[in-house]
Amino acid sequence: MSGDAGGLPDINALVLPLDDNFEIRLDAARQFWRVLKGRPPGFRYGSLPQQTRLRHIINLRAFDGKSAGAPYRRLAEELLSREPIPPRDWRDHHLRHKVRAILRRTNRLVAGGYRDLLLYPQSRSRKSDR
Hints:
Radius of gyration: 22 Å
Mean pLDDT: 83
Number of helices: 6
Shape: elongated
Number of strands: 0
Largest sheet: none
Number of domains: 2
Structural class: mainly alpha
């Protein structure tokens, strides 16, 4: 193998299996090639959209709050509302249902669903497995 001026070997080929992770591997190979050529790696395939990232931040904060013993109304006030929710309104408040849904989603993530984030936008689990 001959090397280039930077002392790196010339890479003539790269083998990528045509499996479920092909797109991820292809993007990793693209980033590797760009770095070898002295270019910035560019955007990463499968980056979580901003809205999804923000939703997961709220999920984790809700999980931490619930783990610390915070009541649902406090979670709703801290994470989803700009103003306090009076106790008399809490029973029928729309944020009560939203907090419960967030905590259900968070329980699925904590039970192992977070692994799907590692391979986003592909999912390791199937809907039929849930």
